[in-house]
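cache lookup: miss for this entity combination. No prior model stored, computing from scratch. Input as submitted by user K.M.:
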Amino acid sequence: MSSTSPQPPDDGVPRPPEVVRRLALLWDPPQPSGRGRRARLTLDDVVGAGTAIADTEGLEGLSMRKVAARLEVGAMSLYTYVPGRTELLDLMIDRAFAELDLPPATAPWRDGLAAYARAHWELFQRHPWILQTNMWRLPLTPSVLDAQECGLRTLVDTGLPERQVVEIVGLLDAFVRGLARSTVAESAEKDASGQSNDEYWTSMSSFWVDHFDPRRYPTMLRIWDAGGFDAEATPFEASLERLLDSVGMAIDRARGAS
Amino acid sequence: MSSTSPQPPDDGVPRPPEVVRRLALLWDPPQPSGRGRRARLTLDDVVGAGTAIADTEGLEGLSMRKVAARLEVGAMSLYTYVPGRTELLDLMIDRAFAELDLPPATAPWRDGLAAYARAHWELFQRHPWILQTNMWRLPLTPSVLDAQECGLRTLVDTGLPERQVVEIVGLLDAFVRGLARSTVAESAEKDASGQSNDEYWTSMSSFWVDHFDPRRYPTMLRIWDAGGFDAEATPFEASLERLLDSVGMAIDRARGAS
DNA sequence: TCATCTCTCGTACGCTGTACTGGAACTAGT
DNA sequence: ACTAGTTCCAGTACAGCGTACGAGAGATGA
């Protein structure tokens, strides 16, 4: 999902140890070293507990103390498995992206790209907290790169210039994330906070009664009257098809030009 | 930018007072009531100070204590102007969206929609913290609705069914937000934390040397070798044109069908 | 057995948002 | 000019957060 830019190897660069540790934890899961006291938990237990909490309470409800409590462990014990909250989140994201049901390399580009988009869409429904992460740079994580690789692969043999492949996958990612944000996560939030659903509705109704000025917003009123806002079906599939159409146009153009 | 859904007025619904207060603060700015002690600050001072801090330090650097310190005022004094941090953020967002340079109603749909998208794009460059807000529902704020009204207005007379107008504006919003997230904010973050740029680069290089497996990610390697990743020019304009093309197709289809 | 290593976790520090409260400053009415 | 009414100011305090530190517990290799 993230836009990543491979760099040539450069051995002369100093490496801050916390960066190295962070990456090592993701790419080389630690093997238990016989010696010393036995661990009560595994790294996966910790990541799983964090995910469970974030799934139900959102990212703002995820605290080290809560994770520890769920595992019936002292708060500071977590820090033997994970350097800190940031790295825990990295691992949670990796674990979540590993769940993606990615299309096979053999799929034709349109099917593959649609499946790629839907897989992410469903992932964001299961784990809406991913959309709450800062995410203007997903972590450099195995599963995240697997997904990225898959997305690029669907288009790399279509004749499009490489730069445009990157651009299109980025556009698709932006689309899925953005739409998931305004649609999926909303309902998840409502479910989580129980009465929040009513409260939100109330806030809306209070707004329309007290503050909405039809003269200031005539277009919205007109669209409302025409029923344009009550879209019980999410516009995901329709918008996706539109997007894929435009990708098809770009491919045709590229093939015509070569 | 948000997807809003007007509801019919319903006077029988109870209204939680904090919701009413929150909306009132946004829509009916408080007039000073002659009586009592004179205020040292205005609401706008507080919102401005908050915006200034968020612009330079990001949203995680915005705390009530810092805002108060910048205004040379006790922390608790802020609470006479603003019920809490949440509402301060609402006001900051409203103020930011008021800066949008929206296209006139007379513009042809393609120019208008492009200007609408670019205005948001530039706004997110000036105030990247907006992208950090939860934002799976922008606040019901005058300026936010102005923007939404403008976006819908550009398409409402093109012959598209109302539902599709809403869908397309939503898609465009998602696109701009998503791309801004992965592009704009990244550089802003680097500027803010100074050495973070080097550090990030270092982390990358460390990654490519130690962990990247070309056999696992052949497509990424291939695209990298072809120079597909070194896009110094942001793909915003190119992707926007592609998106507008697909909107044009939808409009032609709608006109042909009617 | 004992040194060594690793995991466990209580305590503590600095940060956050904000409830409460007493006091300061100002105006309106008399 | 005085008082009553009203508003703003801010110190203190509390619960929650991430996590640095260090003492103790449990396991292993020599």
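stored under new cache key. The mean pLDDT of chain A is 86.
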